[in-house]
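Holo prediction — pyroglutamic acid.
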Amino acid sequence: MTLHARSHLLGVALGLAAAGPALAQGQNWDMPTPYGDGIFHTQNIMQFADELREATDGALDITVHSANSLFGHAEIRDVVRQGVVPIGEILLSRLANENPAFGVDSIPFLAASYDDAAALWEASRPTIEELFEAEGLTVLFSVPWPGQSLFLRQPVEDPADMEGLSFRAYNVATERLAELLGATPTQVEEGDIPTAFSTGRVEAMITSPSTGANAQAWDFTSHYIDTQAWLPKNIVFVNSSALQALSEDDQAALMDAAAAAEARGWEMSMAETAEKIAALEAGGMEIMQPSEALAARLAEIGETMTAEWLEEAGETGQAIIDAFNDR
Ligand code: PCA
């Protein structure tokens, strides 16, 4: 925790103690999120907070602390679980090392369209909700990033050209993908992408056009290969005790605002894809479709990663895939 966060929270705790029963009148919730204000996920969450403030006549007032400004991405789930803050957002698949079910949305080409991603979310949601509930957390909503595509410094036709590249990763699946491509993965937070490229820590990545455009990827890469291989999701969740402490009306308002934010977020994500590819092109990047050889290699990697995931996720994993295949 940063010093700033610590003193801020101490202030919050003292405020709570002094306020006593007056608390029932209104709640000020601090909400840490990982991504910056230029990212549509953050904008969607800001709107969610605005709508909720309005629907509850100010009784539930969420302050969004974006871009890891209150807590770092790696801390957010735990501080909500501990009740240090009541609500937060993370990239769901960052938890895949705890349970493979959290990483099902990051397997290349398992569910690469919005329709398939929605079906996969529907198939996996009960499991994810149960796993969160076991930690004292209630899932509010989940929104996908646009399709994950390659950002490179050269026009790769032959997948072998990616061997040896130092490759930015953001979860275990991107790490594994880099390995299977013969590249060397390095974990880099989204906000640190420009620095990681400019200092030579990484020289290639796979992410959404949203993240690429937000980082001004044209400053440090030249070619965008439109693989749109999977749609990883962010998830917004609340501490279950904090939720239950709300009045019934406010709980209902929170659930309504969450459902609206989920629907709006998916729409925003879909609109982003073409918009941000155009922004990459306007920035000077060359937009390419994958060569046949690259597409074939990535499809093969997708098969390998699906098999590895099923092996690891066991019966729970198989049940999710069966429910998904029944769509
Ligand atoms: N942006 C985030 C996660 C997936 C994405 O599109 C990132 O690159 O870290």
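READOUT: The pocket of pyroglutamic acid is lined by residues 91, 145, 170, 190, 207-208, 210-211, 232 (CB under 6 Å).
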